[in-house]
Amino acid sequence: MERLTDRLLNWASILDDVTRRQAENTASLPFVYPHVALMPDAHLGKGATVGSVLPTREAIIPAAVGVDIGCGMIAVRTPWSVAEVRARGSLAPLRGDIERAVPLSAGKYNRKLTDSVRPRLAELEELAAELGDHVLPAVQGATPNWQLQLGSLGSGNHFIEVTADERDRVWLFLHSGSRGVGNKIAMRHIAIARKRAEQERLDLPDRDLAWLDEGTPEFDRYIAELRWAQHFALLNREEMMDRVAVCLAVHMRADETPELERTNCHHNFTQQERHFDADLWVSRKGAIQAKKGQPGLIPGSMATASYVVSGLGNPLSLESSPHGAGRAFSRSKARKTFTRAQLEEAMAGIEWRHSDAFLDEIPAAYKDVDVVMADAADLVKVRHTLRQLVNVKGD
Asked: Can you tell me the distance from the alpha carbon of 206 to that of 190, in angstroms, rounded to the nearest whole number?
């Protein structure tokens, strides 16, 4: 860890100047306390840096949570070994079953409600009623098909994988968030914060650092809808994981996939916590909570290692850790820099859908995850290292 300023601590050994300036701008805001913590995977983001932990007093920056509210990871350890899974035949049919069971890509959702999704929808409707009468109408008005989005993956860096750990035990692993409904909620409140900043002529280093003040109706509405979207994201991952588990059971000719371990964690979220003798709103944008002994998940890119970790409760990091490898190239730059042949080489030995659509997700477009994990040595302890057997992504 290095102290870049009195209000900015950094764990990233790979940090470009533009990202550093962005983080310094965020750390300069008057309600930040005691400091912004940059994680090892820090890189440029919208308003606030991706891979940052932002503790604030009596205010929240909607853009510092991110537009994919509640985005995160879920992993399940199964009782089967790599040898047992491969003995059942080619992994291509398993990949195909997963691609049919879970809608992939932006704008792709379920065509009908499944039996497994209905109790989760009821849970979300009950939560909305608890959080306030405005929540469900706001969700319904912005995203009429929100119910069909539960159990869908999305695109970009979201993925589903069948993986194996260092003992050749098979895990199911996936990354997704609150889909279109969470995005609509985020964008609406980012716009509200911007408008308020303009009306009050606030001098901001970046208009996306506009904030909402605790105690105002705008703040209360945002927090209620944020909490709902975060739970939507968690249940979205649960629903997809259950479907993937069914696909693996079919491959194994079993009645079900027994679960020996399950971890589900956000890495784009806000919650109230107490640090440095103060009650704070802690926004983690591309970071996971890592209290001492807390289970966590840190994915690499689509052909590099991922990690099952346990938090070390580092107080200076606000008990946080990185959420992944972190981008080194923008998507457009990656497409101009790398070739399909390089992607094919990187994905050798992994069952995946061969497509140019994933060129911007090539491992070389990301930071070296081994460097990220070395930087995180005082933030988390690695429990398991996972490698991919099957990769599923949306276009």
From this structure: 12
One-letter amino acid for residue 18 of the chain: V
Q: Strand order of the sheet with strand 2-5? A: 2-5, 8-10, 36-43, 50-56, 278-285, 268-275
In angstroms, the CA 225 to CA 288 distance is 21
Predicted confidence (pLDDT) at residue 326 exceeds the cutoff of 90: no
Residue 306 to residue 313: CA distance in whole angstroms: 21
Give CA–CA dist 361/363, Å, rounded: 6
Q: Is pLDDT above 90 for 338?
A: yes
Specify the residue for token string 């609509």: 184
Closest CA to 153 of 175, 173, 131: 175
Average pLDDT, the chain: 95
Q: What is the pLDDT of residues 151-202, one digit of tens each?
A: 999 988 899 999 999 999 999 999 999 999 999 999 999 999 999 999 999 9
Report yes or no: 306 and 297 within 8 Å, Cβ to Cβ. Answer: yes
Q: Do residues 205 and 27 lie in contact, with contact meaning Cβ atoms separated by under 8 Å?
A: no
- Active-site positions? 323
- Listed residue (124, 181, 176) closest to 297, CA to CA: 176
DSSP string, 9-24: EE--SS--HHHHHHHH
